[in-house]
Amino acid sequence: MTGRITGRTGFMLIGGVALAVYALFFASSYDQRILTLSGVYVILVLGYQFIFGHAGALSLAQGAFFGTGAYVTGILGSQFGTGFLLTFPLSIAVATIIAAIVAVPVLRLQTHYFALATLALSQLLFLIGVNWESITGGANGLSGVPGITIGAWSFTRGLPLLAIVWAIVGLAMVVAYRQMTPRRVAAFTVMRETPLAAPSFGIDAGMLRLRAFLLSAAFGGAAGALFVHTNRVVSPDTLGFGVMITCLTMTVVGGRFGIAGAVLGALLLTHLPEWFRFLDAYYLVAVGVLLLASVVFAPNGIVSLLAADTERRTPARRPAGPGPVPFPPARPTHLSAENLSKRYGGVQALEAVTLHLESGDIAGVIGPNGAGKTTLANVLTGQAIPDTGRIQLGDDDITAQAAQGIARKGLARTFQTPQLPEGLRVRDVVETAQSYTRTGTGLSVEAALAPFGLLEHAETPCGALPHGVRRRVEICRAVATGPQILVLDEPAAGLTPDEQAEISDICTRLAGEGLAILLIDHNVEFLRPLATRLICMEAGRVIADATPAETLADPRVRDAYFGMNDL
Amino acid sequence: MLIAQLALNALALGSAYALVAIGFVLVLNATTAVNFAHGESVVAGGFAAVALAMFLPPDLGIPGLILLPGVLVVTAVLGLAIGALAYLPIHNRPPVSVFVTTIAVGIIIANSLNAGFGAAPQTAPALIGVGSFEFLGARLSRQSLAIIVTAIVLIGGLAFVLQRTQLGRQFRACSQDPEMARALGIRLTRITMLAFALGTALAGAAGLLLAHQFFISPSDGGSLILKAYIAVVIGGWGSLRGAAAGAMLIAIFEIGVAAISSQPVAEGLLYIVVLLVLFVRPQGLFGEPQQVRA
What we know:
- The structure holds 2 protein chains of 2 kinds.
- Chain A is an alpha/beta fold.
- Chain A folds into 2 domains: 30-240, no CATH class; 334-562, Rossmann fold (3-Layer(aba) Sandwich).
- Chain A has helices at 7-26, 29-54, 62-80, 84-107, 111-131, 133-136, 158-179, 182-193, 205-231, 241-254, 259-275, 283-297, 373-380, 403-409, 426-437, 445-449, 467-480, 497-512, 524-527, 548-553, 555-562; strands at residues 142-143, 148-150, 153-155, 233-234, 334-344, 347-358, 362-366, 388-393, 396-397, 411-413, 485-489, 516-520, 533-538, 541-546.
- Chain B is mainly α.
- Chain B has one domain (2-218).
- Chain B has helices at 2-31, 38-53, 68-87, 95-117, 142-164, 166-176, 178-183, 188-210, 221-235, 240-260, 263-280, and strands spanning 132-135, 138-141.
- Chain B is globular.
- The N and C termini of chain B lie far apart (56 Å).
- Chains A and B meet through helix 4, helix 5, helix 10 and helix 12 of A and helix 4, helix 9 and helix 11 of B.
């Protein structure tokens, strides 16, 4: 990513200089204090962006992490006279440790339970803050927290305090920037928008969420510590829901992603009370209205009103040479599944399914709705764990392994419903799959796109692609992981005959390079000429597994699939 | 007889909580979104009662229960406003968006009440006067009796509408499969708005019921939404019966633990229990009705 000098970044640089000049030469001591608080909130919001923005999880514990940092600094500073150099890292550490303790149970929860669990945690910490009077000072809190001193320098108020807080803000920005590399941002996007598919492209959603949650807690703890050094007292307010609301409002109004959004949100919301002073008691009502209006009218925050940075990239070029671009060859292997069964409640979705695939096979799978075709794909690729049975990829037993591990071992898949994040460009989608599976053959993204005729779409966001192209992107992404086995779940559904022919051609050429393909579809006319074998499933069982002609002639298949014996 | 007394107290508190939780689920089922302003809706109901009571002639001992229709109307209108402002404009966005807009509406409600009435706790008139009856060796206050009976009547009425009327069938159809319901000609938006009106009115009624004995202040919304939320997690996400049962359990827990220790301990323990429940059963105590299909 080079050439980031226009748009948002340019605005931020000019704004930053203007702000520095204002702070140095024009701001009253009161203005300086407000700017100091802005800096504290920038750190809080930068942290919240990890979990709320990138991970897409509504954490209501960000205020609690802030309060935790505040109390660690407040208690140690006021009661034991501990200095900043010790209390600051400790504030960060304690907040992070609390996050780590609850992370395992909490992070696997779905949205609404995650919000509840983080809210319950916050309320619990708030109750402790108010009621554990001997340690926390109860409802009154603790006063006499020392200012920031480092060696002989003291940064207790005014410009020095402002300077050190914003220096730490700068540090936090660097950490945030380095954590959120374009590669990781893309992985977060895939995880957030297509959570079911993400593991199949090597993305470990659990680890990403954990990283985001711990980072958010660390930043929250740091912000809380600095807040207490600014106010010199710590009170239960720092643990209250008000901080959470402030943080949420700043993030939503400023922007869920990026440093610019955090700075804008924090600066705006800390200065708002000044500008809205005439509203008096109704000020917080105005904050609520602002939050509501932001979600409805500017869902990506006011930062989205600024022009985005233009990225200079050389346009994707087709590798030299005439004719269709060849696919990279696949390492030969075989997949064997024995006696797979899977039950969902009262439904036996798979029953004693046995199946073998060799390099070069195109095994079609047909069967009525509910026959267990997708369950078979899910069990093979680690999206679901079989109740019984064994799956072997080459010499590797991959039964019940995590989907991301199976994807890295060379078993790739597509999904029945499109699983492409609308906002990501085709290039990013394919690149993410390549880099997170690491089985890629070291091919460039262009080389992965070219055989699918997708170079011209490389810079297009997936949401803007027609359905037929999306299907090709999905197969391209699966192939970009460098698989030996490819499971395609209804890749031709809803396509025109021409587009179906394209998919058919792609499958033949992939098989020619040594890939083994399991191809689920309803369309017998599509499968008959393409498949080397045709498997028919009914009620979770394989009822036929032979050449297409033999399978289609099987009376049980005719009965089950076509509901008649005289086709 | 202490046990009987505590049980009666828990029954009264649980009845009011049940109204809150059922209202929460009504909106949840119609929108698949969490209405975070629901706690503030309870508070709004309490303050509606406080405000309407100013119009009652004093010293005549007019029972506060007479305010119920007024409170229901005021909070039903509030519910329509919540639906129109916080849900309809963004109903196609991810559920997190509705969380945030309803949090925003909650802020607006709480701080409007704060600006209008002040932060101090207020009390609504007693529902049917003061005094108590002897019942199973325990004292049942008139207030508790009125809370229990009112909640039973409101919940019974709702159950009748949902189970026995065409409107109720439409309602249930929309919560089970909104796309199909729309395809069959049910006006989804109308049903959704009705859910906001009904759900918020039930919360408002709970506000009236709670506001005499427990007082009501503008900042109470947070702990009320948390209790409704927990009740629904305990009772099974989306289940109306479960919500009522969960609310009852929370009331028993609160009153029982508070009897042997203190209110903050009871509250803290409740949150710990919830975290443990989610730790053991990440899909909620009774699981969820439907799973996402890849």
